[in-house]
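Quick check before the chapter quiz. The format below is the same one you will see on the exam, so make sure you can read both the input and the output lines.
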Amino acid sequence: MKSRIYILVILLSYSLSNAQTYTWQWAKTGGAINSSNDIGFSLLHDEHILDMVVDNQNNTYYLTWIYNDTPLLDGQTITTYGFKNILLFSVNCQGVLRWKRVIGGGGNNTNNAQKIVLDNNGGIYLTFAAGNSSSNGSMYLPPRFGDNDVMPVVNDPFVAQYGMRYGHLLKYNTADGNLVWRRDFQGDVSAYNMGMDMSEPVFDSQNNIHLILGFMYGTHLNGMITVPNSFNTTFQYYLVKYDTSGNIVGTPTLLPLTGATTFRTGTLSFMYDETNSRYYLAGSKDSSGSSGGLSISWNNVPITENAFVMAFNSTTFQKLWIRGSGGSVGGFEAGGNIFGLKKDPVTSDIYISGLFGKGMEQVTFGSDFNFTTPLFGSIPFVMKLSTSNSGSNVLWCTNPLSLSNGDLGVTNIIARNPIALKGNEVLFAKGSIREVWGTFPMVRPTNDGADPLLVKLNKDTGVVTGTHEVLGNYGYDDQFTAIAVDNDGNIMLGGFINSQLFVDPNDGVPTISNAANSDKTNFFYAKLATSSNCTLMATAETPVKETDVVFYPNPVEDILHIKTKEKLQSYEVITANGSLVKSGTFDGKDYRVNMQGLTKGVYFVKVEGNGFATADKVVKM
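Here is the expected output.
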């Protein structure tokens, strides 16, 4: 009995993790002296953390742009290959740099990547766009993907050739950042037809990578498709699958999508709900949040909503439903974006986050929902939707209703406003000046700039459960743009910095600064921790009874088998953050737990028998 109580106490401590006190554990910065020429922050050009993910060992991987004038990463020098490149790097749970990889070259502002994903088996993936403006005697170097993988020099860009290929799928090793393989999407192209569009990569339970790819005319995908000559200004879109070895799985499928999306600018997200056989698109038709979005249609029906969420069947590609702004004056067309898109790990509910533009008029989101706030301007929001094959319902929507100084006009930078799920909370990463979220006001002086703000909301109700601020120098704009949760429930954050952050002497970490002598935007990354402990939870190493209980396969894709001589009665599946996501009883001696539909990551599977309980750490692929 003593051992059973012990394991239950351990598991209960995980479920209380959300109530723990958070402290800033460390903060780092990086970037170059120069940056874009845009006034203020530019979503499309300035250095900031584009995306971040955490692996099973609590190593974090970051994606950012990096410019070429004296670039640094946590004080270490970086070699770049063009005016603006992509930087992929990793740190351990203490913030110590593990490795760094600069990707790109080829010309001014021609390199682009937006999202990274892990396969939980040592691979990290991204789609990458790289124009090649190199030539003999040119100031530009050809694009570089790895130490020994460099595109050839191009002397005549108007002749179709290998060196002009623009879109790529890249796999790197999580241990050292070395390139594992590169797959080019296009055949030989020239300056006339080199353009293409590409979504972020998403995984299914079989570890296949799903992509939406848009091509101009020509023969592409290793000769598997030929796009007609009529696509000389727009793209023909396909759903394409790859395995983790870089092989195309099955046959690319032509999608009923026409026009031009904003995947490459990071303002359109792609998600796969395998359990319900649905894909989702969520974002904005416009790449910068201004009015007059790009033309885009599905099955020849124009998408009129500038900011929208759309579901379509993953087999027939039939549009199931779409929800977006109900008007073009003062609504989403006036600066709306959807940046965050997450699926609930248990239900078919989804969560979105972003900004909606509001004047004095009512702003709708679909035909059955009105945003409610007396504020006007660019208003941040988080929303939960129940979904089915026939439609969606707004379960809750949370946005600020007031400002701490009593004003009504809200100013928000058009930047990424992502979300993450942590147990029973939704975490919203953004920037703010004086927003009041629930009962938590952010107080800043008149004419101050935005400071990074993390908002925590109850996943079931949308009620704000707390906020965490970072204090920056007066008058400068700084903001969170990326967020992830590690396996111990700590919150990893990244964003952009324009002067100094963590200037509050009581925040627990040294002040960080952007590049010396720079008046441009740099990037930063930080850890908001529940403790100083860097180790993973060790349930698997805590035996509770002298009995053999084996969980296999581990990692698992769908069905987890449990081998034991003991008689088992019930099971529970618990996230690394302490939330119960699945439970049930066993029928007979065929002990199985269906893990299908759960998101990839670390879980603790607890089983109980007659007078005992034990748990083991299981990785869901």
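If your answer matched, good. The domain at 1-20+546-621 is CATH 2.60.40.3080 (Immunoglobulin-like).
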